[in-house]
Amino acid sequence: MNCKEATKLMDGYLDGELDPITSQTIDQHLKECHNCDQAYKTHGSLIRAIGNATPYFKAPAALRERIQSSLREEIAERPLQNVARDSQMLFRRRWPELRTILLGTPWNWLGLAAAIIFAAIIALNLVPRLQRPGADQFLATQLIASHVRSLMANHLTDVASSDQHTVKPWLDAKLDFAPAVVDLGSEGFTLLGGRLDYLENRPVAALVYQRRKHFINLFVWPAESGSTNRTNTITRQGYQLLHWVDSDFNYWAVSDVSDNDLQAFKQVFEKQLPRH
Amino acid sequence: MALLLKEEHASETEDFESNPKIVKFVVVKKREEQDHSPKGELTSFEALMLPHIDAAHNLARWLLRNEQDAQDVVQEAYLRAFKSFAGFHGSNGRAWLLTIVRNTSYTLLKKNHAVDLTTTFDEEIHGSGEESVSPATILEHSEDAELIKEAMDELPAEFREILVLRHLEGLSYKEIADIAQIPQGTVMSRLARARAKLKEYLAARIGKEK
Fold first, then answer.
1. What does the DSSP 8-state code read for residue A54?
2. What ipTM was predicted for this assembly?
3. At the N or C end, where does chain A have fewer CB atoms within 10 A?
4. Cβ contacts (< 8 Å) between A74 and chain B: which residues?
């Protein structure tokens, strides 16, 4: 890799969007080339600073109301058309037609009964299996609901502090476990505070971090003994969920930041965890 | 077994034939379901799409540079989204909504004959300015929100859009490609050019202040 190529790939590298092999080649080049290394560092901090300082125009509350009422007007008009059409069809066309089909046809009743019972047996066996969401999927729904509620009801934190030494004792006093609380402000994830939440039939800790203009809720509760380390990602309704388990705790990070950001969050979080 | 079935259903058959209520019940039930659906559809639409109202407003506000237009466009975009909601099967509601907001914004910009839609305009008029201010100086000023806003507003729409989607929404290149309707390979180069232009305008403004 030469300097020209490295410069061309700078934005992709800093955004974490290059494939691993190209990234490694660049890492190697940056170790050898002081100029490029310097250029990457300056450009990186400038991108971060600009991203943080760019104003974010939140929607005024009145706009939300305006949209909701215009949507209601939209459906208020819609059923009128539907009912008019339906009743026409029902009484003029579909009604006699149905009668003819149902009553006029010489049915083989035994065959029909057998078919119905057969269908019922299949349905009874299959439907619950199809509908039963996986345990993770059900939990994911609960987690997103908690995340959305925390942002909606102006109840993001019970204890608002960017100081991990304030948040941790507060949580420890309220819970029957002691989650690790780390401030990741220097890594671009500012600790805003902590909150109590209730998930999986138990009180859990919710740590709130901010990434640019976005919030990350990190839900923590003790892992069951014997659970294995694993990580998985779920995308739902535009939200990203990242789940991992270490020797002590279950972690679920929920946010509307990109998957890459959430992975980066997990990495820096684990790096900062006190070792024991 | 067969005999039993026959007996059970024999009685049902009689009911069925003598009593058209059952047929009516089927029809009425069907109508109830149809009547109910728009409300149900609205509930799930709102649950999926209203959480992204800030993202929608922010993008429209940056593209149109005008609060009133932004609100009108967001409202229009939500209505359009609702009408085509049946066609939405993906999992990424935010990207889907932002695509509609973006297209609605561009329609208005074109109607108003905005001249700074694409980057060709920018490069023709402004040419490439020289950087007389060092990156370190720009970095010192980079926390000045007002300065950044002024410089951003000077950029063509294509650049404002890509910077907002990346810096403020933190979207991946893939998502940006879908929303801006450009190939994924173009995202990196356009983002690089947008950042370079922004740096240039920041430098120009800082240079003037001095």
1. S
2. 0.77
3. C
4. 79, 82-83
- The angle at the Cα of B194, spanning B193 to B195, to the nearest 5 degrees, equals 90
Angstrom CA distances, B209 to B116, B202, B204, stand at: 25, 11, 9
List the structure tokens of A139. 């939990």
Query: Could you tell me the two tokens for A78?
Result: 């819609």
Please judge whether A55 and B145 are an interchain contact, meaning their C-beta atoms are less than 8 angstroms apart.
yes
- Look at B192 and A11 and tell me if their CB atoms are within 8 Å: yes
pLDDT value of residue A162: 80
**What is the maximal distance between C-alpha atoms in chain B?**
100
Tens of pLDDT, residues A109-124: 777 788 888 888 877 7
With beta carbons less than 8 A apart as the criterion, state whether B98 and B59 touch: yes
**Tens-place pLDDT, residues A225-270:** 766 677 888 888 888 899 998 878 899 999 998 888 899 999 999 8
And the tokens for A110? 């035994």
CB atoms < 10 A from the CB of A32, how many? 9
DSSP A108-149: -HHHHHHHHHHHHHHHHHHHHHHHS--HHHHHHHHHHHHHHH
